[in-house]
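tmp note - Glycosyl transferase CAP10 domain-containing protein
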Amino acid sequence: MVSTYVQSTRPFIRYVLKQGPVVKAFLPFFVAICDHPYTRFIHLPRHATDTDEDASSRVSVVRFAVVALLWGFAVTQLTQLAETPTGVVCPAGWCIERFVPLTQLAVVFLDAVIVSQVSRLRQSNQDQTSRSWYLLGSALLTSAAILSFLAVWSWLDPINSTTNVFLTRLEIRDVVLDSFFATFTLVFGVCLLGSFHANLVSLVTTGTTVSVLILSTSLGSTANAIWSDYRGIATGSVVFLGFGALLHLRKANLPISVSLHRDHALTLGRYYIYALAALFLVLFHAFFFRAQENNVFSPSRVMAAGRSESDNWFAHATKSTSLESAVKEYRQRYGLPPPPNFDKWYEFARSVNSPVIDAFDQINSDLLPFWGLTPALLRERTTHLLEHPSLSMGGLLIQDGQTSLSPHVHGTHRWMVDVVEEMVKPFSQWLPDMQLAFNLDDECRVAVPTADMTHFISTAHVARSNLQSKKNLVSFSQTPSPPWDKGFLDVDDSIWGRWSDSFHVSSKSPIFSQLVAPTCPADAPANQYGWWNRKTKCRECPSPHMENGFVRNWTLSADLCHQPDLAHLHGFLTSPSAMAASRELFPIFSQARGHNFADILYPSPWSFNEKAHYEEEKDVDWEHKLNSVYWRGASSDGFAVRGSWQMFLRARFVHLTSAIRGTIMKYDMLHFFRGRQFSRSTDASVSPTALDRGLQVSHGSNEQIMVNVSFVGSFSRCDQRDCAAEHTTFYGSPSAEPPESLDFQEHWQHRHLVDLDGAGFSGRFLPFVRSGSLPYRAALFRTWWEERIHPWKHYIPLDLRLDDFWPALNYFGGTGAGDAKEIAEAGRQWAQKALRKEDMQVYMFRLLLEWGRIIDDKREDVGFSLGT
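out:
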C-alpha cells in the first residue's frame, strides 16, 4: 500500500513492514471500520445510491467486520505453525521494540483509510475529485523518486551509501524490486476499486497475500527463499486479483466501468472467505501433524556417519612410523616435499608422543593462499603490521634461533605474546629468521574477496607445482632480499598514532554485507538475496549442512555463503566489539577465525596458559554427575548497541532456556520440586546455587533433565540503554542484583555442558572435553584443533540457530544416555593424548617451518629430502 512503500526507506520501518504480512490479514476488518457510515473519516461524494444504501448496509458491514476480524486471528495462528522463530529476544520493560506490533497495526490502519478513500475517489464524479487524484499521484511519484534516488546512490557510491542511507546495495535492490511489483498490485487494486467494493478488494488482496506467504513457507524451497517475501506475494496477489476480477466481471456480464452493488460484493467476499477457510483448515491440519511428527528426533544416523568419518581420519592421522614414511606421506598428501628441518620436527613430535604425525591439513589450507604472494611482499606486509601497533598486533621476532618481542604491545595484551614466545622457544633454533604478527583482538581480521582469493590460490598451485618437480632441494636462505626491516623497533610512542589505510574499522556495525558476502561466490545466496525477517528462520539456509534436524557437516555449518540469515543471529556479524579488518591478504596469525576469513590459525595463548583450568581432582564420575545442562557466562558476543544484543548467540540461548523454564514452572511446579535430582545425594560437591537455579524438563523417560542456565554479573559491553534492557530482560527488573559468578570447577558436577562463541572463540571447550562431561558446541569461529576433535565422536555439534539443542538434549539426557557417556569418555581420553601443551607446540613448530619456506626468496627450491 501507499503508506507501506513511502516509509520503506528506513530500515526500522522496513523491518516493521517485513513482519507485517500476517498483520495485514486484519486489513479487511479495518477497511470495514473505516467504511462504516458512522466512522467515515473523509466525506467524499460517492454514487447517489450509496446514501440510500447506507442504512440497510450497516448490519452487513458490521457482520463483515466481525468475520474479517475472526479470520485475521485464524491466519495469525496458522502462520505461527508455518513459521519457525529464530529466538530473537523481545526485551522486557519499556523499549522501542515493544511498539513494533502497535506500529504494524497503525500502518495497516493507515492502509485501510487509504483504500477506503481511494475507493470513494474511484466511484466519484471526475470533476469533483481532480485535486484528490493529483495528490494521490504525487504521493506515488514521490515514493518512486525516493526509492530510485536511493538505488542510484547505492550503485554509484557503494561504500559510503550504507553510512548515509542506512541500507546496503542488496537491500536497496530488494526495496526497488519490491516496489516494482507493488506498483502492479497498486495499479490493479486501484482499477478494481472502481468496480468492486473496498471490502472485497482488501479481502482478496490480503487473502492471497497471506496464502502465498504460508504456501511458500510450507514448501520451503530455495527458489521461494530467494524470491523473498513481497515479490512472490505481490506477484501472486496480482495474478489472483486480475484473474478473479475478470472471471467475476464476465459472469456478471458487466463492463469494467460498471460497479458492483454492495450486496453482490459481500456475497463474493463471503464465498471467498469460505474458500480461504477451507484452504487454511487443510494447511492447519498439515502443519499440525507435521509438527507432531517432528517432535521426535534421533541423531542416530548423523552420529553413525560422524563416527565413521572420525575413524577414517584416525586411520590416516598417524600412518607413519618412521621419518622415511613421514616424508613419503607428506608428499602424497600435499604434493610437494616437506620444509627444511622436517627431521627436527619429527624428532620433537615423537619425543612428546604426539598422536598426530601426518594429518595437518589445517596448516596446508591456511597457508595455501600466501603462496600467491611474493616472499618480499609478505615480509613487507608483516613489517607493516608491526609498524602500526594501533591495529592491535603483537610482534614476535626470531633471529639466529633466538626469540624477542616487539616493544609496541599494549600492557593488557602483553601476556599473549609472552605466552607465544614461551611456546616457540623450545624449537626456535630450528626456525629461519622471521617476523610474525599476532592478532591480539578476539575477532579475526582478514576478509579477502573471492575473486582475489581465487587468483592467489591459482598462483599458489603454480608455485607449488614448480617446487614439486625440483630434485635438488636447498635449506632456508640466510639473507632475504630485501632484508627484514627493523626500524620500527626504535620508534618512540608516536608510533601509536599511526593508522593503516588497508584496515577499516567496523566496530559496533554489521559486517555481513561489507566483509563476509564479498568472500563468497557471486552466485552464492549471501550475494543473491538478503534475509529481511530476522524473527523467522530461513528453512533452506541450513539444509546443506543439516540432516534429520542435526548438524551433518560441521565444517560447512560455519560457511556463511549459504546462510544469509545468520547475518542477524551472531554478535560478531551484527555488532563486533573491536573490528578492524582488511580486504587485502595480510599474514595475520589469529587464535580463531570465521570460515570466510583468511587469518592463519595458531594455538591460542589462552589455552596454552590454561586460563580456563580443569582441575581433575574436583571432577566426579559420570554416574555421580547431575543429569543437567549447565551454562554460566557473560553477554560478550559483541557490543550491544541499538538493540543488537537481541540477536546475539548467548542471549538467544539464555532466552531459549528461560522460555522453557517459564513453561515448566507454570505447568509442572509440583513435579519440579519432587524431581529425583534433588534427592540424588548430599555430596558436598554439589553446589546449592546449582540446585536453587536448576529447573527440570521431562523427556518422556524416568529421568528428568535439569536446566541450569544463567548470565552472571552486570552487563558491560553495551551502551546505557542496551545495558538496562539486558539487565531487565534477564534479571527481572532494573534494580535486581545480578547472579554472582560461580567457581569454574562447578561445571564438572553436570553431565551436559554448552560451549558458545563469545567475542571470538570460547576458551572453555578444551576443559569441557577434558572433564568427561558431554560438551555441546555452537560456534561460528574455528580453531587450530578442528581437524583433530570430531563432532559426534568427541562432542555434540549444534547449529547456530539452536533448533537442534532441545532434541539433542532430550536424546542424550534420556534414551541416549549410553551414547552420551561414550562420547564424553572418548573426548576425555583423546584430549589427554592430543590436546596437551606439547601438542600445541608440535602444531606451532610445523606451522612456522611451513611459514619459513613461504617467506623464503628461493621457496620453489626449498625443502627437505632424506640424506641431506
